[in-house]
Amino acid sequence: MKMVELRIDDLSAPEVHSLIAEHLEGMRGNTPAGHVHALAIDALKRPEITFWTAWMDTQLCGCGALKELDAASGEVKSMRTRTAFLRQGIGQAILDRIVHTARERGYRHLYLETGTGPAFTAAHRFYLQNGFTWCGPFGDYEATEFNVFMVRALPLSRA
Questions:
Q1: Which residue in 30, 154, 33, 32 sits closest to 98, CA to CA?
Q2: pLDDT tens digit sequence for 72-87
Q3: Distances from the Cα of 3 to the Cαs of 53, 54, 61, 90, in angstroms?
Q4: E strand or H helix at 81
Q5: Within 10 A of 51 (CB to CB), how many other CB atoms are there?
Q6: What whole-number distance in Å separates Cα of residue 62 and Cα of residue 145?
Q7: CATH architecture of structural domain 5-153
């Protein structure tokens, strides 16, 4: 299996713009208007967000971001693996980096909001397998029939 290289990205490359457009299109295709909380390029450039791209050789294969909610918690944002790279460990590598960075920052909780319905079943399974559990809304989110919320506790390490 090829190695996945993760890079903190400034979102300036057209290739990255294309991936974000693909992500937004996918979210809008599976969630009604007004209920999509995926971030566009400008929002991903905010200082409280760290954005990573995943690469295999010269191919952009995925992305993910960590948004600081407060000094003790963060939110997983913009997780996307391009279709050609599904089931090759891309999403796991990105999430592992996000969790590692959250721990380094001293976060005690990592949250996420995602959609409902069949298009999101694989994502739900993925996050449950990675220690996330269902929770109620956090931050400025409101619960609707089109979203669910998850949290993962990040106990302080005893290093």
A1: 154
A2: 999 999 999 999 999 9
A3: 14, 10, 12, 10
A4: strand 73-81
A5: 23
A6: 28
A7: 3-Layer(aba) Sandwich (3.40)
